[in-house]
Amino acid sequence: MSIYEFGPFQLDADQLLLLHEGAPVALGPKVVETLLALIEHPGEVLAKTALLDRIWPEGFVEEANLAQNVYVLRKTLKPHCVADPIETVPRRGYRFVASVRLVECSEAPAPRVAAIVPARRAWLPSRAILALAAIAIVAIVAVGVLVTSAFARQPVQPQLSSSGARLYAIGRYYWNLRTRGGVEKSLAYFAQVIDADPHDASGYAALAEANATMSDYHYGPLASDVYLNRARAYARKALALDSDSGEAYAALGFIAMRKGQWAQALQGLRHALALAPSYGPAHEWYGIALLRSGHLPAAFRELKTAADLDPLSVATTAWLGSAAYLDRRYNEAIAYSRQTLDLDPDRSDVYQTIGLAYEAQRRYPRAVVAFERFGSSCADCRAEAAALLAHAYAEEHQLTRARSELAYAIGHDRNVDPADLAIALNAIGERRIAFSWLRRVHGSISWTAIANDPRYDAMREDAGFRQLSQGAG
């Protein structure tokens, strides 16, 4: 086993695992591969092209992904190093400048948190990215994920004992996985935080968010409302211990969003940000609320702030990609979605955002590849991908393929967003039928996304579309 040591860090090259004084650091595999490539050649300048070829041999990646990986590494390493260990060499590449020692050993490194194989997610159709009717319920938890690195900015209160702080960090690690097993483990660890520090609000606020996660993802054997009621009780207990707990107010805002109580959610989240302006999830959830109300630039700024605070949060980066697409920042939408996949390769729903951004740029072959990758990611994704492909093919004037994909999507319409069927039908000239599907989402908060989705630009001047838009939620 090869282990590279530098400063207080150890990098297990075989397991692609970074440790800080024996504790695991939650980094995406592509980020760790970037670090390994640099560490294997300390003091040498590695060209960007060489790094891209090594880290992404499959191609289909932008140079911004490499820059983001380096940014995440600097954010993680620099607070624990005397100087920035990664040097940028203009117009050439990057160089690792810290002292490195290679250790060959036959035994495992210091104990680490056991890995969890991510469960297959039952993602919603395309509107999980765009139509906020679906997003507002399912993905609110996704954007509630916290950075799990022991040295990213965390809401751990200073009065936590050393044991409580360690349990809290491990709980955040598992919660950030967002698999059923991960969230259930986080509940157990946060409960131990309360056992270790019963008079500290941190454990109770974290349990509030974890229980709300159980509700939103429909994990566990209990009814959704049972978990939400538990979440609310834990948040109130946290406030009873610390009336200025920004994390607890953020949890209540999170719960209100889950219940569709948007005014209450906004009020709680604004108060949370006033108390804890560096708390990433509060910025995330506030950004979602702004996105829902159509305030795209403000929503993008909030989500960008959240991503800067929590650069390892998969959900934040995924949401940032969606917001960038709706705000017509297409290159950024692609880059952020790629970063999401680097952090979590199983987060296949972001291929929708990638495909839509490429389509908006009229780069149809790349859009098709992205939609096909999404369609192959799960059994229920194929029909939604067919609707997306139908529109892309129609825009490229491949009407035979468009009609074929559309026929498949309509034949499996229970797994397809009606709005995506409508836009595909409109693209092949079936406007009357398109409006019949569009009426199915009339009055829902999907219209917030429809009002900003670039694909609907061709329909906005239609009198029927304007009539449907009047009074839509």
Structure report:
The protein is α+β, with helices and mostly antiparallel strands and 473 residues long. It has 3 domains: 2-104, Orthogonal Bundle (Arc Repressor Mutant, subunit A), CATH 1.10.10; 126-342, Tetratricopeptide repeat domain (Serine Threonine Protein Phosphatase 5, Tetratricopeptide repeat); 350-469, Alpha Horseshoe (Serine Threonine Protein Phosphatase 5, Tetratricopeptide repeat), CATH 1.25.40. The protein is 57% helix and 6% strand. It has helices at residues 29-39, 48-55, 63-77, 132-138, 162-177, 180-196, 201-216, 224-241, 246-258, 262-275, 280-292, 296-309, 314-326, 330-343, 350-360, 364-375, 381-395, 399-411, 418-427, 431-438, 446-450, 463-469; strands at 2-6, 9-12, 17-20, 23-24, 45-47, 86-89, 93-96, 101-104. The protein has a 5-stranded antiparallel sheet with strand order 4-3-2-1-8, with helices on one face. Helix 6 (180-196) runs antiparallel to helix 7. The longest helix is centred in the middle third of the chain and has 18 residues, at 224-241. It starts with a strand and ends with a helix.
